[in-house]
């Protein structure tokens, strides 16, 4: 059982025979260092693993568990599995398909080396198997989430009224893009946060000792670490935030990390929650009249649509997907991504909150940290490593397509139909960040020009030939062509100032 497979109904355990089988789990340094995993993220994984192991033990399951601080711990999943195989000579190793290509590859190699049968089973926590996704993708010139999502709705009957979508519409996105306006979000319901118990406190001390130089702080750790807490977090969201979720899904507000989001991605990705129960709870809230359809459809689309879709993209395109760089971006990631030490209010707020909690909501990831890296031209692999390191919900199958495909357009359009690019005016419309920022989102040049706005026009200019082939970019390019050659030259010169030599993050 791996650290993101903490469900007792896992396929790996389906025919578990307590008389002759044992569960193997290992905490290893490599999983926290192949990217510099933040203290929040490592703490969550280790604490959740220990809580799950304790539960298995209570059930009388024979457990082989290596702790991170065990003196004989060899530090990698592969070498720890080898040790276990040598010690027990198992007839076979059974596992649920892991969430990362690298891990599957390493485990396969160990099994081959020791001539042990390896039984890799489907992960039934997802609605769609990788084979089904591949069949959906076959023969299509372009993959689009919306068509996949409709297929999933029909297949599962979720939010369906016979053969038709409930409410007569597949998608209520147009109603889900409000900002908070000048008055702000008002009183936001407090999120579910959980006081660390003895086990989590022990992990926090270990993480602070072993990974003291890793990003972020674990002082305010409050994530659900077991199934009971995860269920509590889900119930709290459904009752207090789901009704507003859709409307304010894209909105941001300075100092407000949680807003009307669910904060359950980490619980879902660790398998503390099953997406079926999450969707059932949201659908039932609608049917009881406790939440409006646009909010419920918007929320369900994220899980039944986007979450399943990105998983399909990952497994049908790995391992080459990891090297995608369609925009030929080569800049280093600015050093301040690891500290939040920047004058740009929107980025400072998103990064500080990320380092404090291991969390930022989707638009902060896509249209603040992701957008800046895309416009600046940061090498996609460095952007991917940052996202995989800093978020508590980061597991490669979901993080990588979101970062490389949606955030950086590095896959050239496999995942998204166009690059998500905008100037600082988008951030101004969706938040109050610009009011406290020394820069002006309306300006592309001059000492107070917003770096997003400068880099936006420069990005369009730099990639104009490639983007001209994309019908969805016509309007944006039309506006670019309204700028005079002198304005474009000044923008290009100013853009270069943001690319002053940066010291890359030292691991
Ligand atoms: C650059 C980038 C990197 C990302 N990295 C991750 C990651 O490592 N892990 C991760 O789970 N999500 C990732 N996402 C998707 C999304 O931002 C997070 O799932 C969401 O912000 C988590 O917060 P929440 O639980 O409050 O979600 P909510 O806003 O409440 O959404 C509900 C749920 O829908 C699912 N969801 C929403 N959007 C997506 C999406 N685009 N892809 C897959 N699932 C989605 C999540 O399970 C989430 O919990 C990333 C997005 C971007 C743009
Ligand atoms: S002015 Fe630009 S940098 Fe400043 S907060 Fe607005 S978008 Fe961000």
Describe this structure as you would to a colleague.
The chain is mainly alpha-helical and 507 residues long. It folds into 3 domains: 11-121, 3-Layer(aba) Sandwich (Rossmann fold), CATH 3.40.50.620; 130-189 and 241-317, Serine Threonine Protein Phosphatase 5, Tetratricopeptide repeat (Alpha Horseshoe), CATH 1.25.40.80; 335-497, DNA Cyclobutane Dipyrimidine Photolyase, subunit A, domain 3. It is 47% helix and 4% strand. It has helices at 30-33, 39-58, 77-88, 101-113, 130-137, 145-156, 198-210, 227-240, 242-245, 265-269, 275-287, 293-317, 345-357, 362-376, 380-390, 396-407, 424-430, 451-462, 464-467, 474-480, 485-497, and strands at residues 23-26, 63-66, 92-96, 117-121, 160-161, 164-165. The radius of gyration is 23 Å and the shape is globular. The model is unreliable at 502-507 (pLDDT under 50). Bound molecules: flavin-adenine dinucleotide and iron/sulfur cluster (SF4). Flavin-adenine dinucleotide binds next to helix 10, helix 12, helix 14 and helix 16.
| Uncertain residue ranges | 502-507
According to CATH, what is the topology of the largest domain?
A: DNA Cyclobutane Dipyrimidine Photolyase, subunit A, domain 3
Order of helices and strands: EHHEHEHEHHEEHHHHHHHHHHHHHHH
Proportion in helices: 40-55%
What is the mean pLDDT?
Answer: 96
Number of domains: 3
Biggest β-sheet: count, sense, barrel? 2 strands, parallel
């Amino acid at each position: 059982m791996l650290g993101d497979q903490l469900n007792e109904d896992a396929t790996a355990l389906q025919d578990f025979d307590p008389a002759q089988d044992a569960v193997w789990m290992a905490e290893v340094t490599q999983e926290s260092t192949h990217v510099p995993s933040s203290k929040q993220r490592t703490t969550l994984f280790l604490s959740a693993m220990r809580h799950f192991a304790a539960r298995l033990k209570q059930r009388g399951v024979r457990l082989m568990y290596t702790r991170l601080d065990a003196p004989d711990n060899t530090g990698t999943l592969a070498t720890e599995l080898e040790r276990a195989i040598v010690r027990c000579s198992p007839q076979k190793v059974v596992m649920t398909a892991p969430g990362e290509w690298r891990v599957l590859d390493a485990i396969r190699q160990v099994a081959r080396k020791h001539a042990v049968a390896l039984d890799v089973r489907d992960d039934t926590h997802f609605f769609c198997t990788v084979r089904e996704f591949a069949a959906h993708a076959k023969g299509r010139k372009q993959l689009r989430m919306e068509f996949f999502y409709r297929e999933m709705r029909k297949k599962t009957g979720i939010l369906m009224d016979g053969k038709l979508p409930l409410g007569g519409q597949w998608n209520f996105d147009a109603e889900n893009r409000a900002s908070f306006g000048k008055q702000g979000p008002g009183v936001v319901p407090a999120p579910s946060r959980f006081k660390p118990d003895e086990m989590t406190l022990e992990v926090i001390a270990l993480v602070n000792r072993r990974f003291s130089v890793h990003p972020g702080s674990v002082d305010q750790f409050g994530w659900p670490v077991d199934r009971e807490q995860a269920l509590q977090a889900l119930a709290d969201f459904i009752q207090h935030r789901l009704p507003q979720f859709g409307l304010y899904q894209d909105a941001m507000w300075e100092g407000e990390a949680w807003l009307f989001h669910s904060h359950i991605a980490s619980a879902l990705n660790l398998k503390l929650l099953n997406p079926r129960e999450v969707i059932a709870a949201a659908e039932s809230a609608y049917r009881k009249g406790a939440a409006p359809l646009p909010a419920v459809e918007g929320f369900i689309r994220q899980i039944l649509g986007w979450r399943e879709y990105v998983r399909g993209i990952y497994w049908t395109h790995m391992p080459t997907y990891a090297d995608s760089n369609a925009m030929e971006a080569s800049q280093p990631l600015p050093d301040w991504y690891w500290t939040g030490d920047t004058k740009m209010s929107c980025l400072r707020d998103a990064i500080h909150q990320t380092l404090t909690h291991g969390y930022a909501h989707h638009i902060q990831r896509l249209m603040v940290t992701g957008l800046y890296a895309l416009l600046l031209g940061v090498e996609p692999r460095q952007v991917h490593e940052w996202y995989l390191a800093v978020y508590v919900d980061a597991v490669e199958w979901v993080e990588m397509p979101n970062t490389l495909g949606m955030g950086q357009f590095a896959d050239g359009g496999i995942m998204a139909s166009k690059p998500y690019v905008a100037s600082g005016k988008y951030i101004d419309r969706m938040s109050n960040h610009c009011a406290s920022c020394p820069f002006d989102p309306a300006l592309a040049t001059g000492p107070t020009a917003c770096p997003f706005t400068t880099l936006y026009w420069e990005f369009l200019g730099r990639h104009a030939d490639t983007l001209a082939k994309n019908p969805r970019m016509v309007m944006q390019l039309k506006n670019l062509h309204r700028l005079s050659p002198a304005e474009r030259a000044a923008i290009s010169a100013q853009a270069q100032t943001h690319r002053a030599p940066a010291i890359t993050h030292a691991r």
